[in-house]
Amino acid sequence: QSALTQPASVSGSRGQSITLSCTGTNSDVGGFDYVSWYQHHPGEAPKLIIYHVTNRPSGVSNRFSGSKSGNTASLTISGLQAEDEADYYCGSYSSSSILLFGGGTRVTVL
Amino acid sequence: EVQLVESGGRLVKPGESLRLSCAASGFTLNNAWMSWVRQAPGKGLEWVGRVKSVGGTTDNAALVKGRFIILRDDSRNTLYLQMNNLKSDDSAVYYCTTEGYEIGYHALAVWGQGTTVTVSS
User: Which of B47, B68, B106 should one mutate to test binding to chain A, selecting the residue with the greatest count of A CBs within 10 A?
Assistant: First the structure.
């Protein structure tokens, strides 16, 4: 199965809101509510920030929110801050019982 | 505190084998689904495979099927990734992670710090 599709980069000014997309198929993103989002600062371990499309783990800022429509999931970061500059990956369970990741989106805070 | 510590990464030649370890603490490994995820230099995250809690059955990504085996030693509370017939494309940082443990199904909540494998002649 192919990886999920994410834009390579998204940028925004401090305080702005940005939305990252993650497009899959009926066999993964569209077929299950098992979409997760991960924040990855280079040199560190990835961090789970959204699971099951809309849920935030304990301790994750409420500036991060997730949604899904059809085969496309989205991550919105509100009130963009300098520390949000990182790579963001979506992940989804698929009908073949494997996990798929997107190619990642580099977020730049202007 | 739930913690994962990977080890075993090093420089190997193409065709060689290598076993990575992931020592778990703060929880019992056989109560959790566990996954391996890798990131090649300059590339994104790639799921490698998992071992399930009940029965210890495994699933693998197509790219590594037949070459990589996930093992679990319950007495040591340690997860392993046995990698055989290594190729240059297997060069990556390898992470072990919990999958769905104390959080939603298939969410990778707890990650180790990663161990680096380089395959080069």
Answer: B106
